[in-house]
Amino acid sequence: MRFRQQGFTLLEIMVVIAIMGLIAVMVTMTMPSERNNNAMDQAETLKEAIRLAADRALIEGRMMGVIINTDGWQIVTLRSIEKQARSTSLLDDYFAIKASYQWQPWLYRRLPLQRHLSPSFRLMLNIQGMPVDLYSYDDKRDVELTPLIWLYPSGEITSFKITLLKKATEKQSAIEFQITGDALGNIKLIDLDKEM
What we know:
196 residues; alpha+beta; minor pseudopilin epsh fold; 5-stranded antiparallel β-sheet; 5 helices
């Protein structure tokens, strides 16, 4: 007498569940995250990235910088590139040293520390009390990486004020946060909606 199998084996059911789980993860990853549209999270992420870079500059004894664009930011570090031969002139040595360093994206745990914001956000920047025209700076970003905020190995930083503005929608009014940094390395996040 032959036994006929009816139904599915446990192995077949587990394979189908695993495939359905993978599909669910892929769909979830492609959907826009609500966290990416939260102004508080974006401001907090930028503040902590600057604080992390400032700490690393102090610990590792190297120059770090923050590039701010209207639609995002990036942390960079000053690294030496191909060494040049020494010349006899002191002035030639100065230019050779200057040419042997370049701003490069900083890799934190092998990933560049940067963020491109959604179109509903806009960044504005003041350096030492003076507003910076980020639109003209955006035109140059493909040419070279040059930070406007410098983080020195001594713990000092360029005095700055970054304003993160989330544009108003039908459901929500505009939201504004400021990240400030003084020359002594103190970095603060201010919710301008609560201050008013």
